[in-house]
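Page 47, continued from p. 46.
Same chain as before, 351 aa.
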Amino acid sequence: MMELNQLLEMLKHTPAMQSKQAIAHHASINTTCHVDSLDSLYAYPGDDTAAVPLNGQYILHACEGMLPSFVTNHPYFAGWSAVMANISDIAAMGGRALSVVNSFWHTSSEHAQLLMQGIQDACNAYGVLLVGGHTNIGVVYQPTLSVAIQGIARKLLSVLHVKPQQKILIALNLKGRFHPNTTYWKCFERVPDRILQSQIALLPQLAETNLAHAARDISNAGILGSLLMLLEATASGAQINLDAIPKPDDVDWFKWLQIFPSFGFLLTADANECEAIIELFHRQGIACAVIGETNACGVVAVQQQKRHGIFWDFNRQIFTGFCYADALKKLQAQSIQIKPKSQQESMLCPV
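Result:
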C-alpha cells in the first residue's frame, strides 16, 4: 500500500488538480459590491451552478465544456458526458434539470452525428429536453463541444451553507466500470431510464426536506479535489477518514480518488440527519457513508488507519480562488445588527 503522505502529494499534482488551480490565476471575483444578501452570492462562481431567485424559487444555470481530445477520440461518450455532468451539477445544487442547449465544432459529419446521438440519448435517459444549439462542421475546425443546462430549485444545497461541525458524506454508485484509459467511472450503461432519474432526484429531495445543507458533485478533480471545492467558498477545513470512502476492492486508492463518476456527490449535513440520508441512497442502490467532519481551521486533514496527513491548507494556498468567507461574515454582521436585541443574544449565545 502506498504511504499516505506520498498518496496525497501525488493527488495534489494530477493534471486535473492543476487545471482547477489554474482558475485562480485567470479569474478574480470582487464581492465588495452588489452583495447585499445570500441570494445575491448564489449567482457567483463556486457552486456547481449559478442560482438566480425568481418568484420564490431559483433558476439554475450551468455549462460544461469537453476537452477537444475527448471529443475527437470518444464522440458519443463526450456527448453523453456533457449532458450527464450538467445534470449532476443541477442536482448538486438541489435542483431539477429542465432543458439543454449545445454548441459544437467538428471536422467530421460522421463523428458529429455520434456526438449529437450521445447528447440526445443522455437527454432521453434523464428526461431532459434538448431545445437547440449551434452546429459547425468544417475541415478548418478543431472538434469542440460545450453544453449548457437550465434547471429549477425550491431550496438550494449551496457550498455557501457549509459551517463547522457538519458531517461530510459521500454518495457513490459502485455498480460501474472505468471507461478505457480514463478516470471516468460509468454507472449508467444498461440501467433503465426510470432508475437513472430516480437516483438523480435524490438530491433535490434532500434539499426540499432539509436533510442536507450543501452538496458538490464529484468532478474531474476527483474525490479530494471536489472536496476542496465544497469547502473553499467558506474557507472551511475538514477531517477525512479515507477508509470510510466506499471503494471496489480491485481498485487502488490513487486511481479511485481521481474518479470522475457518472453518479457521485459530496454532501454536508447535521449528525442527526446522516442515518436518514444514507438510507435514502441505499434504497436506490447507492453506497453512502459519513467520511468526515467540517471545521473552521481551513486545513483538510486525512486519516488512513493510524496514519495522518495534510492534503490542503487554505490558510497558505488557494485552490480555485472562489472564497466568500469575508462576504459571508459581512452579511452575518449586517443580519445581527438589524435584529432586535433579544434575537441578537439568542444568536450569539446559543443554548
